[in-house]
Design goal:
alpha+beta, four-stranded antiparallel β-sheet, 4 strands
């Protein structure tokens, strides 16, 4: 589990993410429902590659991602690595939609 100072530092370079207790969360509003599903599908593939799976909530074109490392009881490097990957995926899909 990361120290509080490290969590604050890492959130500083991931401005779309916010901390809620032992999780970090990001909400994405896609241009339409199919784009939202493409984002979720691409994140699912990356998460499977990393064996680190976010909680995902889909409400029409709004997708919320929540990351934590349950086995560590809080936030780890894996959470922030996947958060950065999610940011890249969202940017890539939105710019090509």
């Amino acid at each position: 589990m990361l120290a509080e100072s490290e969590i604050v530092k890492r959130l500083g370079v991931l401005p779309a993410w916010r901390r809620e207790g032992r999780e970090i969360r990001r909400e994405v509003t896609a241009r339409d429902f199919p784009t939202a599903i493409r984002i979720v599908d691409a994140v699912a593939v990356r998460a499977e590659e990393l064996d680190h799976h976010p909680d995902i909530d889909i409400r029409w074109r709004t997708v919320t991602f929540a990351l934590t490392t349950h086995s560590a009881g809080g936030l780890t490097e894996s959470d922030f690595g996947l958060a950065a990957d999610i940011d890249r995926i969202v940017e890539n899909i939105e710019s090509h939609a």
